[in-house]
Design brief:
The protein is of the alpha/beta class. Helix content is about 35%, strand content about 20%. It is built from twelve helices and 18 strands.
């Protein structure tokens, strides 16, 4: 009889255990299915580190077509985990987004197809467009999505008529690759001859003067000056021996040119000529933010920021050579191939090669007519528009022969995006992490100390004693 009762108890307890286990697993499966189809996330952090801003959420709500995100990271890279967390957050807010990680070393054909040259590049594809970004942050990713969904194109004008770089395919010194890259960035590119029309078109987001071989006419320079005074954006790429007659024009905006050629013997380490300076030092600016890739400039000249810029103008250096380079001012020695640094006349390194000048509302510029003067005062929302002038002492660095060399293309596109005001579609301030100190009174501190030193050990001893008594009574 005792044996039968014991067996019944075993079966009863065993069946209850099996049923409870099955029910528990079934509940877990149902909860997992519900969580997969209807995920729910809550950010308990004070600074909102794991949630998106309202600006981003509003943009994600407007996405009505599938968007694919390809993130090119080395397998196992620490940055990949942070990127995945951010992409998961975006996908949680929009089911139209899909992403995948691609190792450029394991799938080089995909990386080459998307023109990826560095780890950490992310390509957003959708709406018939592609938008690459070099640094995966909420601001960059949201701006890229905004560019993708936005209709219309901004116009970039290339100045012609004075021997500037041509856009003819097959010319290694031409700009056909540059224009194709800008079109992929959703820009419309066209030529501009200021000898045939008196002023820069009103729809110009950026005007580029690329390597003029002849001096610009006074009428052309005045058209550019008027364009800048009304808040325009101008980029000048000027080679040694050819300043396009813009020296005095640039000086009025705090940028100085000298008759020199930059010599950099460090280029030999990279397999280049000493006439091709290499740049790995960049200024603190949005254009060069987190940009640490080498760029090369075949036959460049120095571009200096004035020590005392005109009123209302601020000038910043964007790119400089190493200290081993210098600006050679004996041009005959350069032509003869016999250069040596002369501290009396030459400019020692680091030599600035790219400078940007911001023209504020206080800069006094003669406007061509009253309507242009009014446009200079008021931009969007009635705020004063700020003109911008960027000068690089070389135009070959983005010619067809060198556009894909190291970081040349990326730096140039960064310049264009900033000048065309595409880098600031939305601005997301970094979240500030603030500590929350815990302040305890003397009584609270005594309570915590007593709990740790007396309460917890007594609880452990009491629990052990109770377990001991229960087991002894069951014997």
């Amino acid at each position: 009889m005792p044996t039968k009762i014991k067996r019944r108890r075993i079966w009863a307890y065993g069946s209850n255990t099996v049923i409870s286990t099955v029910l528990f697993l079934g509940i877990l499966a149902v909860v997992a299915l519900i969580a997969e189809r209807h995920p729910w996330r809550v950010d308990f952090s004070d600074s909102g580190d794991f949630s998106l801003t309202e600006q981003t959420r509003n943009i994600l709500k407007s996405i009505d077509k599938p968007v694919d995100i390809k993130a090119f990271y080395a397998t196992g890279a620490p940055e990949q985990g942070k990127a995945k967390d951010l992409l998961d957050t975006y996908k949680y807010c929009s089911d139209k987004l899909n992403y995948e990680f691609i190792d450029p070393d394991r799938r080089p054909e995909v990386a080459n197809n998307y023109g990826v040259r560095t780890y950490g590049t992310v390509v957003i594809e959708g709406y018939g467009k592609k938008q690459p970004i070099q640094s995966l942050t909420e601001e960059n990713l949201t701006n890229a999505l905004l560019k993708l969904t936005r209709e219309g194109q901004k116009k970039i004008y290339f100045l012609t008529g004075e021997g500037e770089r041509s856009a003819k395919p097959g010319d290694k010194d031409g700009y056909s690759t540059v224009r194709a890259a800008l079109q992929k960035e959703n820009y419309a590119t066209t030529d501009l001859n200021l000898l045939q029309q008196p002023k820069v078109p009103a729809d110009a987001s950026l005007v580029i003067v690329a390597g003029p071989r002849k001096p610009l006419m006074p009428e052309e320079i005045e058209s550019l000056r008027s364009y800048l005074s009304s808040g325009g954006r101008l980029m000048a790429l000027l080679d040694p021996y050819h300043d396009g007659g813009l020296r005095d024009f640039l000086k009025s905006y705090g940028i100085e040119l000298s008759d020199d050629v930059v010599i950099d013997k460090l280029s030999r380490v990279f397999g280049g000529s000493y006439l091709m300076p290499v740049v790995m030092e960049y200024g603190r600016h949005k254009i060069t933010d987190r940009f640490d890739v080498a760029t090369f400039y075949p036959e460049a000249r120095s571009v200096m920021a004035a020590k005392t810029p005109p009123k209302g103008v601020s000038v910043e250096v964007l790119a400089s050579t190493s200290q081993n380079a210098w600006a050679e001012r004996d041009l005959d020695a350069v032509k003869n191939g016999q250069v040596a640094f002369d501290e009396k006349i030459d400019l020692p390194g680091p030599v600035p090669l790219a400078v940007i000048s911001s023209i504020g509302k206080e800069q006094e510029q003669p406007a061509a007519n009253p309507s242009e003067a009014k446009a200079a005062k008021n931009g969007k929302d009635g705020e004063p528009k700020q003109g911008c002038l960027l000068v690089v002492g070389n135009s070959s660095f983005v010619a067809d022969a060198y556009f894909g060399l190291s970081g040349n293309a990326d730096l140039f596109l960064n310049m264009v995006n900033f000048m065309a005001e595409e880098e600031n579609l939305i601005t997301i301030k970094p979240r500030e992490k603030q500590g929350q100190p815990l302040l305890l009174s003397q009584g609270q501190m005594d309570l915590v100390l007593g709990t740790e030193l007396i309460g917890i050990p007594l609880l452990v001893l009491l629990s052990g004693f109770i377990v001991y008594r229960i087991r002894r009574s069951q014997r």
